[in-house]
Design a protein that fits this description.
The chain is α/β, with parallel strands linked by helices. It contains 12 helices and 11 strands. It has one domain: Luciferase-like domain (TIM Barrel). The strands form 2 sheets. Strands 1-2-3-4-7-8-9-11 form an 8-stranded parallel β-barrel, surrounded by 7 helices. It has a two-stranded antiparallel ribbon with strand order 5-6. The two termini are 20 Å apart.
Length: 369
């Protein structure tokens, strides 16, 4: 395998959302990511040098309003991936594709091109489309939930056939029709590049278990027993229903400092003092999160987690705290984590200096020579 996503590191590491202004931190703090190509490139180069497995973007076409207009500046993810593929040497480079906005023939050809540019380090994160204002920009209908996955299944089937079949083929689905479909060259990775999806509903989990190599999950960070059961059931579904083994990934907002107190103070600063509540509430409303039905404490926890870094399992504290948290995730069966910081450069450097050696000592990462 040429793709580092299949390395023998017990816990794989990725960097998330560096193609969007603000990254994942919904804050007005000046430390938050300013989107420029030199910025996104230098973060990828650092992650590449440090031996990370993945750079994963967010497919974003509009911001979420508020003072920060969170994520309003964003690079398109296929061309972003092509640029990073050319500039890096080892790291896996993803695109994130909203399937209703990209025809599968176009997606297959673009993905193959990036796979060749990267010499077999490309991967594709599939998003079925949930952000109504973006889809309306494209004139694409906002499909009912289960129908999105039915559409995505046809989309993936066409893309995989274009990646593998030597002869022209016709495809007649409920949503997609292809006459004499054909795409050459084929990807470098055989039979095709790896796929990721974050399906969380029953329908979404079946889609991921059947079609993708990496399922990205969210869970209550305060209930790791439930997370462990969720991971086990996801793997069982893939194995028993579809005869497949899949990786399970999770997301982690990271605030690392020399002391726990310093880390918690920085979280207080960028989440509580500088957090963009208007943008957060807009995002949660668009996601149909019914905050008014929640207990006030749970609703505030959700807002806090979103501002912290789009939810996920927070890592806050010292280097030792980072390793304790990651060991807990590994014990739950998590194969990889997508990390996000407010200041990516500071975060990557601290992590490389103090956390990486500890991860190797803990047996979560193999030593790099």
């Amino acid at each position: 395998m040429t793709n580092p996503l299949f390395s023998d590191n017990k816990l794989k590491l990725g960097v998330f959302a560096t193609n969007c202004s603000g990254g994942c931190a919904i804050t007005t703090a000046p430390e938050a990511l300013e989107l420029t190509w030199p910025n996104t490139l230098s973060i990828a180069e650092l992650a590449d040098q440090h031996g990370y497995e993945a750079m994963v973007p967010v497919a974003r076409w509009k911001g979420f309003g508020g003072e920060s207009n969170f994520n309003s500046n964003s690079f398109e993810t296929y061309t972003w991936a092509a640029g990073l593929a050319q500039a890096t040497k080892q790291i896996g480079v993803f695109t994130t594709s909203h399937v209703p906005t990209v025809h599968p023939i176009m997606a297959a050809k673009q993905a193959t091109t990036v796979d060749h540019i990267s010499n077999g380090r490309f991967a594709l994160n599939i998003v079925c489309g949930w952000f109504r204002p973006e889809l309306e920009m494209f004139g694409a209908p906002m499909m009912e939930h289960d129908m999105r996955y039915e559409y995505a299944a046809e989309w993936v089937e066409v893309v995989k056939r274009l990646w593998t079949e030597q002869e022209e083929f016709d495809y007649e689905g409920k949503f997609i029709r292809v006459a004499k479909g054909f795409s050459m060259p084929k990807p470098i990775q055989k039979p095709f590049p790896p796929l990721m999806n974050a399906g969380s509903s029953g329908k979404g989990q079946h889609f991921a278990a059947k079609y993708v190599d990496m399922a990205f999950i969210n869970f209550n960070p305060n209930d790791l027993e439930q997370a462990k059961a969720h991971v086990a059931s996801y793997r069982r579904l893939a194995r028993e229903e579809y005869g497949r083994d899949i990786q399970i990934w999770a997301g982690c907002p990271v605030t690392q400092r020399d002391t726990k107190k310093e880390a918690e103070e920085f979280v207080q600063y960028y989440v509580v003092e500088k957090g963009d509540d208007v943008a957060v509430d807009n995002m949660l409303r668009i996601q149909n999160v019914e905050m008014h039905r929640m207990l006030p404490q749970r609703a505030e926890q959700m807002r806090f987690g979103a501002k912290l870094g789009w939810g996920g399992y927070p890592l806050t504290g010292t280097a030792d705290d980072m390793v304790v948290g990651l060991q807990k995730l590994a014990d739950c069966g998590i194969d990889g984590v997508l990390l996000r910081w407010v200041d990516y450069w500071d975060g990557l450097r601290r992590w490389q200096k103090d956390v990486m050696p500890r991860l190797e000592q803990a047996g979560l990462r193999r030593p790099r020579h």
